[in-house]
Amino acid sequence: MSRSDYVKLEGVGVTYGLGPDQTEALCPTDLSLSEGDFVALVGPSGCGKSTILKLVSELLKPTQGNIFFGGRELGARPVRVGMAFQSASLLPWMSIRDNVMLPLKIVPPFKSDYRSKRGGEYRDRVDALLEQVGLLDFADKNPWQLSGGMMQRANLCRALVHDPDLLLLDEPFGALDQFTREELWQTMQDLWLARKPTVLLVTHDLREAAYLANRVCVMSPRPGRIIEDRAVTFERPRPIDATFEPAFVKLVQELRSQIVHTPTGKRSSAA
Amino acid sequence: MSPRTQKFASAGLIVSVFVLWELICLAFGISELILPRPTQIVGAFLEYAPAIRPHAWQTLYTTMVGFFFGVLIGLSLGVLIGSSKLAYDTCYPLLVGISSIPKVAVVPIFVLWFGAGTVPAILTAMIICIFPIVVNVSTGIATVEPELEDVMRSLKASKWEILWNVGLPRSLPYFFASLKVAITLSFVGSVIAETVASNKGVGNMMLIASSSFNVPLVFSGLMVLATMGISLYAIFAFVERRMAGWAMRKDL
């Protein structure tokens, strides 16, 4: 297995429904991630970005093509996945600490020692993570006592606490205001630099994609396919100010032109 | 209005209703055969207290036993139906159908099957309180946020783990809210059954008292029922605050 084939999608497509009602959600797509990579998927809404995430996390089965993880077909052995969505979806009856600890209760091999380690080792593990994102003082609070940005930090912690093989983020910062979002980008970058998880990020914020990712994959409108795979080579850690520098702005504009021009082109050809 | 003055206002309203009742009866010289005054009702209660007590115990007993089994059945059915979309869609029409039958109408059937007495009262109390519990619990479980379910499923959590960690705790506020409704309904059920076919219980006592035109005693039976109903409601409201206070976003 080469390092670049940590996750590999080969001709993976999804269609919903049968017969004439059939809709194609995702054209046959190839995509590969190397271990420790940070890839962002961008594209117009409904293009199948989230579908790819659901496929990789085994929430959805592809109707064609194959997905490989570590050289073997997905499903052959359990892949440890961490997921975070736009809504933090923390459990309101639990403290932040217990919320973050939830995966340790469910995911093997952690779950077998959950009872004996929840007060000790696991607690320390969670607290270390919370400290990294600046939430340690809020560990005993309930979710509704936190701001939206803080809840999203806790959500990231929950997605990372069990050292996932794959971190899948579905517009996790989409519902936040601009300032909080930029703070969270930095937090995310710090977490990635410290732990080097393999990340697949779905977003429609091009600045976010260009700031966070090593590679940005642009998708066409529905039914989606990847029309550009762009390496982002800015030096890390990237300061937020760097997003206003000409090279960065140019990159974002080029990505934008890919997305904004495609539908107009399509419309004229149809007419 | 501050919560404190709010409470005073509520208490004041209750007291003034009784005072007004008393005054109107006095002012218009209403006969105690039509509407006894509150003081007469309390007087009758004190006078007949030893006779009322066994009836009150009987009603409380049938209500609580019926309620207990109703909760047991309602909770299990609710969990079962709520945790599967197929079961939810399949069972819901039947449940709505059953629930729309006036429960009073089934009392004669219970009497036919089990004879007059304690059993029909318990069964009526039970059947009347199952439905609100089933509906609430199944709704609580069935409406788990899809994103949260995706998070759990991506962790490869089993259906059972999702139910135990997310579905059940999430449905707790719904469950306790339904308990408050169910306990008062249970009272309705057992009193109806006692009135129709029993020789014990407050319902039966009120029936006998009204046939002998002892109207103050009828009203004191009502008072006993109200007191028991309110007390049990208060108990479950308290339990609800303790167990599911997070839903009201109170600091526990």
Structure notes:
- The complex is a heterodimer of chains A (271) and B (252).
- Chain A is of the alpha/beta class and 271 residues long.
- Chain A folds into two domains: 1-79 and 166-175 and 198-271, 3-Layer(aba) Sandwich (Rossmann fold), CATH 3.40.50; 88-164, no CATH class.
- Chain A is 36% helix and 22% strand.
- Chain A is built from eight helices and ten strands.
- A six-stranded mixed β-sheet of chain A has the order 6-7-8-3-9-10, sandwiched between helices. Chain A has a four-stranded antiparallel β-sheet with strand order 2-1-4-5, with helices on one face.
- In chain A, helix 5 packs parallel to helix 6.
- The radius of gyration of chain A is 19 Å and the shape is globular.
- The model of chain A is unreliable at 263-271 (pLDDT under 50).
- By secondary structure, chain B is mainly α.
- Chain B has a single domain (36-248), classed as MetI-like (MetI-like fold, Orthogonal Bundle).
- Helices cover 82% and strands 0% of the residues of chain B.
- Chain B contains nine helices and no strands.
- Chain B has helices at 3-28, 38-82, 85-100, 107-114, 118-142, 146-154, 159-196, 202-211, 215-244.
- The longest helix of chain B has 45 residues, at 38-82.
- The mean pLDDT of chain B is 89.
- The A-B interface holds A 54, 57-59, 78, 81-87, 89, 91-93, 102-103, 105-107, 142, 144, 158-159, 162, 168 and B 145, 147-148, 150-157, 161, 165-166, 169-170, 172, 244, 246-247, 249.
Q: Care to give the gist of this entry?
A:
The complex is a heterodimer of chains A (271) and B (252). By secondary structure, chain A is α/β, with parallel strands linked by helices.
